[in-house]
Design goal:
The protein is an alpha/beta fold and 258 residues long. It contains ten helices and five strands. The protein is 40% helix and 11% strand.
Length: 258
Amino acid sequence: MAAPAYRLVYRCWSPQQIAAKLRDMFPDDPACHVSHETIYAPIYAQPRGSLKQSLIEALRQGKPRRGVRRTTAASAGFVPEQLRIAHRPEEIATRLVPGHWEGDFIKGAYNRSAAGTVVERKTRFEVLCKMDGCTAQAALEGFTRQMKKLPAFLRESLTYDNGSEMACHAELSRRLNLDIWFCDPRAPWQRGSNENTNGLLRQFLPKGADLSQVSQTQLNDIARLMNGRPRKTLNWETPEEALAKEMAEYAKRVALDS
């Protein structure tokens, strides 16, 4: 079990991802197969102490007990009527084409620091953005700086929470040449890929941390870990692999059209 332990602790894979990868690596050797519940069981069966604590901390969300759900506070903010999610084109919901993103802030201690998170809806590829504060201007500069690095064909739209940090949304839309849509109040499921990712990110950026001390390089390293994990929703491909396929397909189409 050395390989599963390595992936759990050092590569930050979940037990389900480890179990799926073992089946993929050894399809004809049932002796090497193990269910994700089998991996969870000895972790939570450990007696109280530092060993159990370190194993639980290696899990994705660090839950003290199996099955405990975390809750988040809802936020409210002004949403321009014409940009409400109800008016968003249906094609975005289908996840058939890349370039449509979901975004949010994750806040640090006392809501005084933040990092921006954006997740591509089709490939689940994640980009993390260093923020110099929690203001709308900080969001404008932080999202612009990182999303500008994406190829233009991958900047179609951004669906965001209705937090006040998006007050400069019109300028962000102009800078990135993408459409911006706002979720309804207290409806995090409308940007479910991003909401799920934010929960997973707390393994690396825990609540109560001072996120102003986290550099863009560190955020890039965290994003690389997240994008290198196999995902069940991607048929156990990684977001990195899924995005590479989309970029290859785009390059092929461009070549044929030229």
